[in-house]
């Protein structure tokens, strides 16, 4: 795998423009004093889904072919990545199936469902997630 180039970064910025929020960078004199340096804070808590993960998920999903979007997106996560993939899929007219541990907090499950994703659960202690991956491959949403 090669490192992204400046052109890659600019292309990703173009793909997420108008979809991802432009979040502010702030400073704190108190934090600067404690750190003994100038500290800049990127407020990604103001991003869609409340985390930077939306930027990467939307960028990745937006690069899928129409056929891949038609088949849908499958992802494994119990948190912000799950929400980001679910929202990106919805925004791009696709569907998402998210594999989440059964003990995922209800607030995280509700957020993923709220973005329109189908949630499948597994027991993280017995490893039942591998059955889901096989099932998803048969459905064509997991390679």
From TrEMBL:
<keyword id="KW-0663">Pyridoxal phosphate</keyword>
<dbReference type="Pfam" id="PF00291">
    <property type="entry name" value="PALP"/>
</dbReference>
<dbReference type="InterPro" id="IPR036052">
    <property type="entry name" value="TrpB-like_PALP_sf"/>
</dbReference>
<dbReference type="InterPro" id="IPR001926">
    <property type="entry name" value="TrpB-like_PALP"/>
</dbReference>
<protein>
    <recommendedName>
        <fullName>Tryptophan synthase beta chain-like PALP domain-containing protein</fullName>
    </recommendedName>
</protein>
<feature type="domain" description="Tryptophan synthase beta chain-like PALP">
    <location>
        <begin position="21"/>
        <end position="134"/>
    </location>
</feature>
């Amino acid at each position: 795998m090669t490192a992204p180039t400046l052109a890659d970064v600019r292309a990703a910025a173009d793909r997420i423009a108008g979809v991802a929020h432009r979040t502010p960078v702030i400073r704190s004199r108190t934090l600067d004093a404690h750190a003994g340096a100038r500290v800049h804070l990127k407020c990604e808590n103001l991003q869609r889904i409340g985390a930077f993960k939306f930027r990467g998920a939307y960028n990745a999903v937006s690069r899928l072919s129409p056929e891949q979007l038609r088949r849908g997106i499958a992802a494994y996560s119990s948190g912000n990545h799950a929400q980001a993939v679910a929202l990106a899929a919805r925004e791009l007219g696709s569907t998402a199936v998210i594999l989440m541990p059964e003990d995922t907090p209800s607030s995280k499950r509700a957020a993923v469902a709220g973005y329109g994703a189908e949630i499948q659960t597994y027991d993280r202690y017995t490893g039942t997630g591998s059955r889901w991956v096989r099932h998803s491959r048969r459905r064509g949403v997991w390679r």
